[in-house]
Amino acid sequence: MTELTNEPHDDLAGRRMLFGFTVGYWMLNVIEMFERLAYYSVRSVVAIYIMQADDPNGLHLTAADKGTIYAFWFAFQSILPTFTGGFADRYGYKKSLFVSITLNIAGYILMGTQHSYTGFLFGVIVLATGTAFFKPSIQG
């Protein structure tokens, strides 16, 4: 049986600190900031890209198609973190970040290169799945 003491434990001993927080804390915040900037930048212009009829390189999809794409985007990005949080707990935040960043990169590339409804929808689902892996690993 171990004895409990009221002595404070110094869990941060030997870690580099910056403004009262560890360097890892600041690094994760910067990663989160750039991920959010990329996401909101894409999210704001993707509706125009989906429906723009006068651009020959646009997708030329309907408003119903755009609604379906956004519904899948919401469902994957908002519901999956309930389950992907277990992945982050089991395998650690570093592996979860690797998976999420890889999926995010693949999703952005797919969204930029696919010119069909199903291809673009697949890219959105890959991106949303990457974001679903990203949230629990950063915020946990």
Note down, in words, how this protein is organized:
It is a single chain. With 140 residues, this protein is mainly alpha-helical. The chain has one domain (21-139). 72% of the residues lie in helices and 3% in strands. The protein has a two-stranded antiparallel sheet. A hairpin with a 2-residue loop joins strand 1 and strand 2. The longest helix has 29 residues, at 23-51. The radius of gyration is 20 Å and the shape is elongated. The two termini are 31 Å apart.
Concise account of the structure shown:
The protein is an all-alpha fold. It has 5 helices and 2 strands; from the N terminus they run E-E-H-H-H-H-H. The protein has one domain.
Write the layout of secondary structure elements.
Blueprint: E1 17-18, E2 21-22, H1 23-51, H2 63-79, H3 81-91, H4 93-113, H5 117-139
Antiparallel strand pairs: 1-2
Question: Keywords, please?
Answer:
140 residues, mainly alpha, two-stranded antiparallel sheet, 2 strands, 3% strand
